[in-house]
Specification:
The complex is a heterodimer of chains A (256) and B (277). With 256 residues, chain A is mostly helical. Chain A has eleven helices and no strands. Chain A has a domain at 176-256. Chain A has helices at residues 5-28, 48-52, 57-74, 77-90, 95-116, 125-149, 154-166, 171-183, 190-201, 205-220, 228-241. Chain A starts with a helix and ends in a 15-residue tail after the last helix. Chain B is an all-alpha fold and 277 residues long. In chain B, 80% of the residues lie in helices and 0% in strands. Chain B contains eleven helices and no strands. Chain B has helices at residues 2-20, 23-42, 51-84, 87-93, 98-142, 151-178, 182-197, 199-207, 213-225, 235-240, 249-273. In chain B, helix 6 packs across helix 7 (182-197). The mean pLDDT of chain B is 89. Classes of the chains: A mainly alpha (256), B mainly alpha (277). The interface between A and B is large, with 46 and 56 residues.
């Protein structure tokens, strides 16, 4: 028994250390979002392991992204998508990867699939439309996922709005994305206008006018030249809605 | 106790001096430094990451990779040089216990890796600071918020990495105490590092419910025997603030690292006590 005592002590020490490590891992794990993602599983053999092993993740993400262009040129959908997802997974905070992966999947891959099936003349129009929607939805899913990780969401919201309108033909969904982008501090000038136009096109005319007007009054009027092009669009909305003089935006001193 | 400590420190000192004189150490230090410095010019290959993130990742990657290589190869080399040159026999003939010899080797190697990390982290800090100043000036002109890095976080990361390398040294010493050849110790030590880096997979699997008792038992044992080395890799969160680190989490990681270090050193000392030299 005396002989065994030191070995038992080592056993207890190792088990104690293991239990401590288990509790500490639970606490630090949320701080390392790159690891433990399902997307890494099929790419473990492609050098990604190096990135997961600590450090060099950015470099491996860049290499994976460059390599994805080779597959993109060959129109190899699985290869291209896998490597793009790998880059996104290895560096989830980089907006660039999410935005371009989402757009490439949403915009290009349906065309590859149509060509693979014999071309635009051979594939029925309904099938083409279904493929555009299917890949558009997948591109949107990637962009949505990226919004949870990337530091700058605005560009991802704009790309999502673009896909929702162009590929899914869902104006309401597109308007929702553009609205969120317009509300961001770094919103581009055109986001609010596109949002209002899509809402308008989707039949939510009164809501579109109300939101756009409020946006113009609170965020545009006081800036630069007061965004006259947006005011012109608002005036045309007022005319179409047949609003009374008192319900309209008061005439601006600089307005022609 | 004092005499034992003195003997251990004496072995550490000799080990440290022997290690820093090695060409291998100088070679890896220069390679690591080159990697840190080259990150500035290589950032043109960066795709939309924060620029500081690219520079930091490149440098920390070098620190992690070369640090691990140094911890495995240098430790095994320092241990086996004593055995192969028969100097261990001379040393152990004096009033020096085998545990003191092993501890001395550990502290000497750990100190060398401390120097390695401090030099590389210092360089990394300088490179990050210089680029941060440029980015701040550019951001002021364009009215954007500049990317910054935390010096305190860098210090915490160095401590975390030093602890991680300490655990690696302890494991390699335990393996060396058992191994007959240098090559065996290096290969098994390297595999242990890889297993430690991937231990979180078993840890995650263990937390998921399973019907197989045998599988659950295997995971339970493996998650305790193999140290989780991934938990020390918090470079992004600590230095660049990419994610929040829970309060007290670093202390918990520190304690678990120290516990593994003590456990593997004790194991190494036990094995070495029975070894024929």
């Amino acid at each position: 028994m005396r002989r065994l005592a030191p070995w038992l002590l080592v056993g207890v020490l190792v088990l104690g250390a293991g239990s401590l490590a288990e509790s500490s891992w639970r606490r630090v794990r949320p701080s390392i979002p790159e690891i433990g993602r399902k997307e890494l599983e099929p790419t473990l053999g492609q050098g990604v392991l190096l990135g997961v092993l600590g450090g060099l993740r950015t470099v491996v993400a860049d290499i994976a992204w460059i390599r994805s262009y080779v597959f993109w040129e060959r129109r190899d959908r699985p290869g291209c998508e896998t490597l793009m997802r790998t880059a996104c997974t290895l560096d989830p905070h980089a907006r660039y990867f999410w935005e371009n992966a989402g757009l490439r999947i949403g915009l290009d891959m349906a065309h590859w699939e149509i060509r693979r099936r014999g071309g635009y003349a051979k594939v029925p129009a309904e099938t083409q439309e279904r493929l555009f929607r299917q890949y558009g939805r997948r591109g949107l899913d990637v962009l949505e996922e990226g919004m949870a990780y990337a530091r700058n969401r605005t560009a991802l919201l704009l790309a999502a709005g673009f896909l929702a309108e162009g590929k899914l033909k869902d104006l309401r969904l597109a308007a929702d994305y553009y609205r969120k982008a317009a509300d961001a501090p770094d919103a581009p000038w055109y986001a609010a206008r596109i949002c209002a136009d899509f809402d308008w096109g989707a039949g939510r005319k009164a809501e579109a006018y109300r939101w756009y007007r409020n946006y113009w009054e609170t965020r545009m009027r006081s800036k630069e030249d007061g965004f006259p092009e947006d005011l012109i669009r608002l005036r045309s909305m007022e005319s179409e809605l047949r609003l009374g003089l008192l319900q309209r935006i008061p005439r601006q001193s600089w307005e022609r | 106790m004092n005499a034992s400590l003195r003997r251990t420190l004496w072995i550490s000192r000799v080990t440290f001096l022997e290690a820093v004189r090695q060409r291998f150490f100088a070679f890896l230090l220069v390679l690591g430094a080159a990697m840190v410095l080259s990150s500035v010019s290589l950032r043109v290959f960066d795709f939309g990451h924060g620029e500081l993130k690219f520079i930091a990742d490149f440098g920390f990657g070098g620190m992690f990779f070369f640090g691990s290589v140094l911890a495995v190869v240098m430790t095994a080399q320092l241990f086996f040089s004593e055995i192969d040159n028969k100097t261990a026999l001379t040393l152990l003939a004096k009033p020096l216990s085998r545990a003191e010899f092993l501890l001395g080797k550990f502290f000497g190697a750990w100190a060398v890796l401390g120097v390695f990390l401090v030099v590389l982290a210092g360089l990394q800090g300088l490179v990050l600071w210089a680029r941060e100043q440029e980015l701040i000036a550019m951001a002021e002109q364009s009215g954007k918020i500049p990317a910054t890095f935390s010096v305190l976080g860098l210090g915490q990361l160095v401590l975390m990495q030093w602890l991680r390398l300490g655990v690696v040294i302890a494991i390699v010493l335990a393996i060396s105490a058992l191994a007959r050849t240098f090559l065996f110790a290096v290969v098994v030590g390297s595999l242990a590092v890889v297993a430690g880096q991937l231990q979180w997979i078993a840890q995650d699997a263990f937390l998921r419910p399973t019907d197989s008792q045998a599988y659950a038992a295997f995971l339970w044992v493996s998650t305790r025997l193999i140290p989780n080395l991934q938990q020390f890799n918090l470079a992004d969160a600590l230095v660049l603030g990419s994610a929040a680190v829970e309060e007290g989490a670093l202390i918990a990681v520190g304690f678990s690292g120290l516990a593994y270090l003590v456990a593997y050193l004790t194991l190494g000392a036990l094995i070495f006590r029975r070894r024929e030299i």
